[in-house]
Design a protein that fits this description.
about 150 residues, Four Helix Bundle (Hemerythrin (Met), subunit A), elongated
Length: about 150
């Protein structure tokens, strides 16, 4: 394992994978923050100690909460494949500069995607950032398949 971590591409991948995974993990507390500050809960047990009248007010959806929740879901759908494909890509021995370009573009696209989603920026800002992230993952997947295809 220590030998593997001496590989610059693997170290670069590890850096950017941790950045996007931590970003994804922060979306959970952000959702909680939005739920509490907007008074919007989705589960009965979240408001169990409230009166029946308060429960009716609090058991509702709120656009801000739903926006953060959907952003988190989108992270799960995109960051997990990036981490898996990116690790395999790093193991194929790509040039460091090309690998860094892939990793940096993906991380930037995901961070911008979150800003665009939470900030409700006009389209196509969010869609373009999503497409850029997906293209990076597909590019790395192509390299992996092109390098190790064994059918």
């Amino acid at each position: 394992m220590a030998e593997l971590m001496e590989n610059e591409v693997v170290r670069a991948f590890s850096t950017y994978a941790v950045i996007v995974v931590v970003k994804m993990l922060l979306m959970g507390p952000m959702t909680g923050y939005y739920r509490f500050t907007r008074g919007s809960f989705s589960n009965e047990e979240d408001v169990a100690r409230k009166s029946a009248e308060e429960k009716k007010k609090l058991l509702k959806t709120h656009p801000d909460v739903e926006r953060v929740r959907r952003c988190h879901q989108n992270d799960l759908e995109n960051i997990i494949p990036f981490v898996i494909v990116g690790l395999l890509y790093a193991l194929t021995g790509p040039e460091l500069s090309v690998a860094l370009l892939h990793f940096r573009i993906f991380a930037g696209a995901r961070i911008f995607h979150t800003i665009a989603y939470i900030g409700a920026l006009p389209q196509p800002s969010r869609a373009l950032s999503w497409v850029v992230g997906m293209l990076v993952t597909f590019s790395m997947a192509y390299r992996v398949l092109n390098t190790v295809l064994f059918l």
